[in-house]
Write a structure and sequence with these properties.
heterodimer; A: 304 residues; mainly alpha; B: 313 residues; 13 helices; 78% helix
C-alpha cells in the first residue's frame, strides 16, 4: 500500500517535473494552427484526399488498374474512361488512384524511417557533445550528405535490385542525416534547459532524459521538414520508377505511368499529362501544408 | 576566418574518405557474386574468374579496399566491364555535357530568379509580384523530369520547333545552343521559382531594416537603395542555397539527360546501372560527389566573405 502510493506520487512528480507537452497534444495543436493559416487548410484537405484514395483505392477506382482492353487503347478523356486509357487500354484514372497508394506508402515509409533514425542519432550525438561518439556521428552525417541525394538512392537501388522496400530503404538512407543535423543542433540548446538539468539532478537515466525530456522538445523543426520531405520522396519515387529502378511494373506508380507515356509520347499526350497533374497537385498540397506547419510552429511568424 | 577556412578545407579529406568507403561497400550489397551479377547469366566460369582477378574480388575486404583507395588516389577509377574503356576517359568525355547543362541552366535561372524576386519585393502586390508567386508555385509543383517530359510533349511533339535528342555536337555552336534550350529550361525552371521566392522573402526583410530607412532618410535614389544597398544583403541566403543546389542539379541532370538523350555524366551512370557495369557507376558517382563537395565548400567559404557579420570560432 505504502509503496504503491509512493510510486504514484513519484509518477505524478515526474510528470510535473518534466513539464513537457505530450506528443499527441503537440500534434493536435499543430494541426489546429495549420488549419488557421491561409493555404495550410487547402493543403491539408488535398493531402486527406490523397490519403483517402490511397487507402480506399479498390473501392473508389472505377476499373481494375491492371485490366487490359486492347481494343480501347490510347483513348482520350471520355465518359467510359474519365481520363482515357493507356497503351494497353488500362484505365488511367484507376491507375492514378492506385499510384497514389505507392506514392503515399513510399513517402510515409521513407520519411518515418529516415526521421526516426536521424532524430535518434542526432539527439544522441548532441547529448554527448564533444565526445568521440558525437564526432563519429557528425562524420557519418557529412559523408552521406556529400552525395547528390537521388544519385545515391539510385546506386543503392541499383545494387539491391528494384522493389518497393528497397526504394524506401534507399530513400531513407539518403535523407536521415538532414533530420540528424536538425535534431543535434536543437539538442545542443535544449539540453542546457532547467528541466533537463532538473531531470539529471533527480538521477534519471540518460536514455530516459533523451527520450522523455529532450526529444519531444526538439520536434517542431523536424515536423516542418517532414511535410516538405514527403513531397521530395514522392518525386523521387516516381523518378526512380521512371528510370525503371523503382517499383516493378505492372504496379501502378506515377513514375511508371510517365515512363510508359514517354515511350508513346507521339501517340497520346494523356499518358504523360495525367500523372504529371497528379504529381503537381500532390507537390502543391505538401508545400502548402508544410508552409502552414512552419508558420504555425514558429512563434515569431505567429505574431504577424 | 582563416582558421575556419583551413578547418573547413581539411574536413573534406575524412569526408571524401568516407564517401569512398561507402562506394566501395556498395559492391557488398549486391545479391550473390558481384562478378557473375555484372557479367550476366550467360557468362562462362573462365570470364567470371578473369573479372574476379581483374577487380581483385577474390581478395579479402581490407585488401580490396586498399586496392580501391590506392587506385582512386592514383587517378585510376578502373575500366568498364563492358566496353573496356577506362572509366576516367568515359567521365572526361561525358562531364563537359553535364557541366554545360548545369552551368547554363543554373546561371540563367539565378539571374532571372534574383531579378524577379528583387522586383517582386520592391513592388509588392504588383503583377510582377503575383507572377513570382505563380512561377515559384509552378517550380515547386513540377519537378525537373516532369517538366522535361512536358516540354518534349509541347515543343517536340505538338509544335515540333526544337530538337529533343542528343547534345547537337554535330551542328556547331548553333546546334549545341538549340539542343540546350529545352534541357536547360527543364532543369532551371524550378530554380527560377525557388530563387525568386527566396530572394523576395529576404529582400522584404532587408527593406524593412534600419539601414535602409537611414538610406531613405538621406534621400538616396530609390533605385540604388533597392538594387545596391538592399540586394547586396538580400542575396546572401541565395548563395548557400546555390551551393547545396549543385547536388540537386546533378541529380536532376540524370533525368534530363536520359529524357533528352544527352551523353552526359548522369546518362553514363544510369546506362552503367542498366548494364550492371559497376566500375563505371562507382566512378561516375564519385565524380558527381566530388563536384558537389567542392561546390558546398565554395559556398561555405564565400558565405563568410559576403556576410562579414558572421563570426566563426
Amino acid at each position: 500500500m505504502n509503496t504503491t502510493s509512493s510510486k504514484r506520487i513519484s509518477g505524478q512528480m515526474n510528470r510535473q517535473m518534466s513539464l513537457t507537452p505530450r506528443w499527441t497534444e503537440t500534434l493536435i495543436m499543430a494541426f489546429q494552427s495549420v488549419a488557421k493559416v491561409k493555404g495550410g487548410l487547402i493543403g491539408a484537405i488535398f493531402i486527406s484526399v490523397m490519403l483517402l484514395s490511397a487507402i480506399c483505392a479498390q473501392w473508389i477506382s472505377p476499373y481494375d488498374p491492371n485490366a487490359q482492353n486492347i481494343i480501347q487503347r490510347f483513348t482520350g478523356p471520355g465518359t467510359a474512361h474519365l481520363l482515357g486509357t493507356d497503351y494497353l487500354g488500362r484505365d488511367i484514372l484507376s491507375r492514378i488512384i492506385y499510384g497514389c497508394r505507392i506514392a503515399v506508402l513510399v513517402a510515409f515509409g521513407a520519411v518515418s524511417l529516415s526521421s526516426i533514425i536521424g532524430v535518434f542519432l542526432g539527439v544522441m550525438a548532441g547529448y554527448n557533445e564533444g565526445k568521440k561518439f558525437d564526432y563519429f556521428i557528425i562524420w557519418l552525417f557529412d559523408i552521406v550528405r556529400s552525395f547528390p541525394q537521388i544519385i545515391l538512392a539510385l546506386a543503392i537501388v541499383a545494387v539491391m535490385g528494384p522493389s518497393l522496400v528497397n526504394v524506401v530503404v534507399a530513400l531513407a538512407f539518403t535523407a536521415f542525416p538532414f533530420y540528424g543535423r536538425i535534431a543535434r543542433a536543437q539538442t545542443l540548446s535544449v539540453k542546457e534547459a532547467d528541466y533537463v538539468k532538473a531531470a539529471e539532478a533527480m538521477g534519471q537515466k540518460p536514455l530516459t532524459i533523451i527520450l522523455r525530456h529532450i526529444t519531444p522538445n526538439i520536434m517542431a523543426p523536424v515536423i516542418v521538414c517532414l511535410g516538405m520531405d514527403m513531397a521530395t520522396m514522392i518525386i523521387w519515387e516516381s523518378g526512380l520508377s521512371f528510370l525503371g529502378l523503382g517499383v516493378r511494373p505492372p504496379t501502378a506508380s506515377w513514375g511508371i505511368m510517365l515512363r510508359n507515356g514517354y515511350k508513346y509520347i507521339q501517340v497520346s499526350p494523356w499518358m504523360i499529362l495525367w500523372p504529371a497533374v497528379a504529381i503537381a497537385l500532390s507537390m502543391i498540397a505538401f508545400s502548402l501544408f508544410s508552409e502552414g506547419l512552419r508558420v504555425a510552429l514558429d512563434p515569431k511568424e505567429r505574431e504577424r | 576566418m582563416l582558421k575556419y577556412i583551413i578547418k573547413r578545407v581539411l574536413w573534406v579529406i575524412p569526408t571524401l574518405l568516407g564517401v569512398l568507403i561507402i562506394l566501395f561497400s556498395l559492391t557488398y550489397l549486391m545479391p550473390g557474386d558481384p562478378a557473375s551479377a555484372m557479367l550476366g547469366p550467360r557468362a562462362t566460369p573462365e570470364l567470371v574468374e578473369e573479372l574476379n582477378n581483374r577487380l581483385h574480388l577474390n581478395e579479402n575486404m581490407p585488401t580490396r579496399l586498399g586496392y580501391y583507395l590506392l587506385g582512386v588516389v592514383k587517378g585510376d577509377l578502373g575500366t568498364s566491364v563492358w566496353s573496356g574503356h577506362s572509366v576516367s576517359s568515359l567521365i572526361s568525355s561525358s562531364l563537359p555535357h553535364t557541366a554545360l547543362l548545369a552551368v547554363s541552366s543554373l546561371g540563367v535561372a539565378a539571374v532571372i530568379g534574383v531579378f524577379l524576386g528583387a522586383f517582386g519585393a520592391i513592388r509588392q502586390n504588383s503583377p510582377i509580384s503575383r507572377f513570382v508567386t505563380i512561377v515559384s508555385l509552378l517550380g515547386v509543383a513540377v519537378p525537373d523530369f516532369v517538366a522535361a517530359l512536358l516540354l518534349v510533349l509541347l515543343f517536340c511533339v505538338k509544335f515540333p520547333i526544337l530538337p529533343s535528342i542528343g547534345a547537337g555536337t554535330d551542328g556547331g555552336i548553333l546546334g549545341i545552343a538549340t539542343h540546350l534550350i529545352l534541357p536547360a529550361t527543364a532543369l532551371g525552371i524550378g530554380w527560377v521559382g525557388y530563387l525568386s521566392r527566396l530572394t523576395r522573402e529576404s529582400m522584404v526583410d532587408v527593406l524593412d531594416s534600419d539601414y535602409i530607412r537611414t538610406a531613405k532618410a538621406f534621400a538616396l535614389p530609390q533605385r540604388s537603395i533597392a538594387y545596391v544597398y538592399a540586394l547586396k544583403n538580400a542575396i546572401i541566403p541565395t548563395i548557400t542555397v546555390i551551393g547545396l543546389g549543385v547536388g540537386k542539379l546533378l541529380g536532376g541532370a540524370v533525368f534530363v539527360e536520359i529524357i533528352f538523350n544527352r551523353p552526359g555524366l548522369g546518362k553514363m551512370i544510369v546506362d552503367a546501372v542498366y548494364a550492371r557495369d559497376f566500375p563505371v557507376v562507382q566512378g561516375g558517382i564519385l565524380v558527381a560527389t566530388i563536384l558537389f563537395v567542392l561546390a558546398n565548400l565554395l559556398a561555405d567559404i564565400s558565405y563568410g566573405f559576403v556576410n562579414p557579420q558572421i563570426q566563426y570560432d
